Amino acid sequence: MSGDATNERSGRQSEERAQPPAEQARNGARPENMNDGTAAPMLSARDLAVQFTAPGGRVARAVDGVNLDLRPGEILALAGESGCGKTTLARTLLGLERPTAGTVSYGGSALRYSTKALKRYRRAVQLVLQDPTGALNPRHTVYDAVAEGLRIHRVHDNERDRVADALSRAGLRPPEKFFLTYPHELSGGQRQRVVIAGALVLEPQIIIADEPVASLDASVRGEILALIMRLRDELGLAAIVVTHDLGLAWNIADRIAVMYLGRIVEEGPVDRVLTEPRHPYTRALVSVLPNSPVPEPVVLSGEPPDATEVPGGCRFHPRCQVLASGLAEQAGVADACRRTDLPVLSAETRRPPDTAGDPGQSAAGDTGSRVACHYAHATTASPA
Amino acid sequence: MTPVLEIDDLRITYRGSRGEIPAVRGISLRLEPGDTLGLAGESGCGKSTVAGAVLRLLPVGTDVTGRIVLDGEDVLAMSFGRLRAVRWAGASIVFQGAMHSLNPVQRIARQIAEPIVLHEGLSADAAEKRAVELMSQVGLPAWRARSYPHQLSGGQRQRVMIAMALACSPKLIIADEATTALDVMIQAQVLTLIKKLVAERNIALIMISHDLSVLADTCARLAVMYAGKLVEQGPSNEVFADARHPYARALSAAFPTVGDPAERRNPHGLAGDPPDPSALPTGCSFHPRCPVAMNECATATVELRRAREDWQAACLRVEEVA
Questions:
Q1: Per-residue confidence (pLDDT) for residue A28, from 0 to 100
Q2: Count of structural domains within chain A
């Protein structure tokens, strides 16, 4: 692996950053309780809903009740199929969409949607786009592309140093060599690094990356993922990575939230959710991976339904293999699956498992994985 | 048994405004009926060029040498009329972007029926009836027959492409990144379908992708290309788990096995960028990015050499790479 971690951290940055996550991370063995709820969340969503009116007056419930917390230095994967609302959720967290209901809060205070407040917010929370070729202006040099954010935010001191620093953190070294190049002269991986440098130059606290490696070649993929991890380790940068690729989550994320039709259906530590998925939908997604930890492949039939027609009851029930196989019937929850909508999963609150009243919220003891499924609740609520 | 496809020392050079670009530099492959081969590599390695060459779909003026024998016939020597007969009926290709391969203003049953009418001389009505049968085989409901492409989802459109590819019972199907743009679950549906149809009909399959894990799951054999050459060829599971060529190793490590603790929080990448085909490195073209390169790699000509029975890799360190 190239892109060796430089230790030339600038004093400007290292002084401001929170140290503890970075220190722990560098030791390799990251304790499971790193984000054990002691740190206050930096970014939170509460009862978030975003609706769009489709032509013809139909209403698409793109995000339909989401609670989510991101803690300092944490990498959270937001996974699901196309159309599940993960990109809309990410855009809403960035303030690019205004929620129909619910709130996004950053640093404990609710996001305000005035132009000025949003501008300040976006300095701290930066977006990294999927397709670096589309994200870069072909007529701007790498220097201009990276400096653009500084100019928008009127940061005029040390522009050259800041750009050079961002480029070298993004793994483009020596940075001066890239100043005057144009996007077409770079490879796909290098372009993605330029896009990341453009986000880093404003010294954000959080980056939100939408499918950061989907358009990249296989061998470059790992390099960009390693970069995202290194940024967390060196700068304490928290990240939300939107992806349909569970392998990516396994590679870099601490926690994963799996979305289906606008809701989070399962959420918890990656090690737990991907090796012992509890929601039938997560289970199916994991089961079709090559060499999957779930033994029997479950290939769901049909397409994910449309957000303008969210099924009643559990929204997954028309495709649910547990309901179809009769297991839900045996557990006595089949009726609930068809008729009773599940409560929106609350954001992570690490209560002691025994005192939790709601079986769904912490039924699996200390795992911290939470699931919105009648069957999972029924089968784990009464521990032996 | 006659092989369905035999490619011998295929070399393909594109001629463009920037001079000659060698895209494929001496490739040999052989497929018997029922064989499934996964062809892997990064963008620009020449894998799609190989696919295009099999049905002579490359731009006019492209230099193609070597031999491509499809079901006993030399493709490069075919008359244009014969070539048209062979496309669809002898071999068919499923491309990645189904949206761009379908006619947006024609109902899908008509589109599936078109090659049947042309190749088997059935009436339009009879051919549409066959088209509807094919649609049910690929899991599309019959009422979709009268839909237009834009009314279908991406997965459904890809199924239409597969139904078309099967329409004239070809002996060979080439799937060029046919599932790459699809969601995981839809991809699993389409792959299951392809596996089943190939096994039932004893069709030979070449599947092209950059995702080694998908190929290893679907195909019996894997061939990995780098800079226009095969660098490794062998049984899928073995190559995926324990590739002999450092590039093939990097490619299989790029897609982690979920659940494998060794790959948790440990993404593997490969430094450097794919070489520019018009300015290839000397010696082994992988040596500038190779983690285990030796001095002689910069100068030696490295051809495929035997790694094990039925398994070859083009690496000087084929015995020791680990």
A1: 40
A2: 2
Domain identity same for A207 and A80: yes
Q: Do A247 and B255 touch (CB under 8 A)?
A: yes
Alpha helices, DSSP H only, in chain B? Answer: 47-54, 80-89, 98-101, 108-120, 124-137, 154-166, 184-201, 212-218, 236-242, 246-254
Domains and CATH numbers, chain B: 5-33+41-88+205-313 (3.40.50.300)
pLDDT band at B321 (very low <50, low <70, confident <90, very high): low
Identify the H or E element spanning A282.
helix A280-287
Is A234 within the bounds of a domain?
yes
Considering the domain boundaries, does residue A2 fall inside one?
Answer: no
Chain B, nearest residue to A172 by Cα: B272
Q: How many distinct helices (H) and strands (E) make up chain B?
A: 10, 12
Domain of residue A314 covers: 279-380
Instruction: Please check whether residues A76 and A149 belong to one and the same domain.
Output: yes
User: In this structure, are A176 and A45 located in the same domain?
Assistant: yes
Tell me if B259 and A293 make a contact (CB, 8 A cut-off): yes
Q: Which residue out of A74, A219, A223, A231 would a mutagenesis test of the B interface target, given it has the greatest number of B Cβ atoms within 10 Å?
A: A219
* Angle formed by the axes of helices A142-152 and A159-169, nearest 10°: 120
Answer yes or no: do A138 and A25 share one domain: yes
Residue A274 pLDDT class (50, 70, 90 cuts): very high
Please compute the mean of the pLDDT values over residues A100-129 and round it to a whole number.
93
The DSSP string of A131-188 is: -HHHHS-TTS-HHHHHHHHHHHTT--TTHHHHHHHHHHHTT-SSGGGGTT--GGGS-H
Residue A224 to residue B269, Cβ atoms within 8 A: yes
Provide the shortest C-alpha distance from residue A224 to chain B (in Å).
Answer: 8
Please indicate, yes or no, whether residues A62 and A169 belong to a single structural domain of this protein: yes
pLDDT digits (tens, 9 = 90+) for A44-97: 999 999 999 877 888 999 999 999 999 999 999 999 988 899 999 999 999 999
Is residue A3 in a domain? no
> Is the reported ipTM for this assembly greater than 0.95?
no
Q: Does B195 touch chain A (CB under 8 A)?
A: no
Across the interface, do B259 and A292 touch by the CB < 8 Å criterion?
Answer: yes
Condensed to tens digits (0 to 9), the pLDDT of residues B259-314 reads 999 999 999 888 887 888 888 999 999 999 999 999 999 999 889 998 888 999 99
Nearest C-alpha in A relative to B152: A303
Please indicate, yes or no, if residue A266 is contained in any of the structural domains.
no
- A333 and A197, same structural domain? no
Cα pseudo-dihedral B277, B283, B284, B285, rounded to 10: -20
Confidence of residue A30 (pLDDT cuts 50, 70, 90): very low
Residues A250 and A374 in one domain: no
Residue A299 has pLDDT above 70, yes or no: yes
Tell me the pLDDT tens digit for each residue of A178-201: 999 999 988 888 999 999 999 999
